[in-house]
Amino acid sequence: MENDAYYNTIEKTAVAEYKDRGSKFLAYVYPLKEVSDFKEKLAGLKKEHPKAVHHCFAYRLGLDGNNYRVSDDGEPSGTAGRPILGQIDSKQLTNVLIVVVRYFGGTLLGVPGLINAYRTAASLALQITPVVQKPVLLPYRLQFDYTQMNDVMKVVKHFDCAVLKQETQLFCTIDIGIPKNRLDEVLFRLKELRGVEVEKF
């Protein structure tokens, strides 16, 4: 199956605003690499909007579908975080964080109104954020003699592998991410190079 060789994500941040009966909902979309990034972004928004009553969010990380988190931040349960995550999932995105900052306008919106407001704010922010498709990378470790650096790097560059970590002395260790859809070709080419050890990690 080809389509599990790619995933959809975003590379830019965006902000959208939605208003309902005086309440203002500001949706911030961020590309996310790890959980610590999320904590930083949320703390930044709380500083930027100290008078806001809620900072609700949802994020999804990684490719297995298990790494996500939602928060209603004091709104009635299920009215904010879940609808925001629903928008991320409807576009089949991962490595994405959306925080919706709410300024209360004096009128209660009720559960359906809240769900609609958070969902709409998240949706508007995603509409203005370009989606990018990236290859799923599989991690492999290469070990080889320094004299082979050129040959190894030729293969790495030719197949658009990502270099994750590199230690070069007389004996080199490089961690690379191999695009899933090119895995067989890359492994074949690397194994053709004498003395290059390849292992999955």
Explain what the structure shows.
The protein is built from 5 helices and 11 strands. A hairpin with a 2-residue loop joins strand 2 (14-20) and strand 3. It has helices spanning 35-48, 81-90, 110-127, 149-158, 183-192, and strands spanning 6-10, 14-20, 23-31, 54-61, 67-71, 96-103, 131-135, 137-145, 162-168, 171-179, 197-200. A 5-stranded antiparallel sheet has the order 2-3-6-4-5, sandwiched between helices. A 4-stranded antiparallel sheet has the order 9-10-8-11, covered by helices on one side. The protein is elongated and about 70 Å long. By secondary structure, the chain is an alpha+beta fold. It has 2 domains: 3-133, Impact, N-terminal domain (Ribosomal Protein S5, domain 2, 2-Layer Sandwich); 136-200, Alpha-Beta Plaits (2-Layer Sandwich), CATH 3.30.70. Helix 2 (81-90) packs parallel to helix 3 (110-127).
Short account of what is shown:
The protein is an alpha+beta fold. The protein contains five helices and eleven strands; from the N terminus they run E-E-E-H-E-E-H-E-H-E-E-H-E-E-H-E. It is elongated.
Q: Which structural traits does this protein have?
A:
single chain; 201 residues; alpha+beta; Ribosomal Protein S5, domain 2; Alpha-Beta Plaits; 2 domains; four-stranded antiparallel sheet; elongated
